Amino acid sequence: MWEDLGMTLIIELLGYPRIVRDAVNRQPRGRKSWCLLAYLLLASQPTSRERLAELLFPAADDPLGALRWSLSDLRRVLGSDCKLYGDR
Asked: pTM for the whole thing?
């Protein structure tokens, strides 16, 4: 659980995955967004966008575009004050 400025964020990855922000259940729009979130939470070091696109979207016509969509989906669910950091 992450708490900051009165906001509560709970991310559960075991069992049926769910995200609860300020007591409201929120769901990413796609399974790849869940995969991306789990990977980012469990990674021991920052991962480049190219590597994430290669891992999650190998068959996409535009892997980096698909990754941008999933990152945008996660930002929508997690909220604008939640930051995803890493290699640009």
From this structure: 0.80
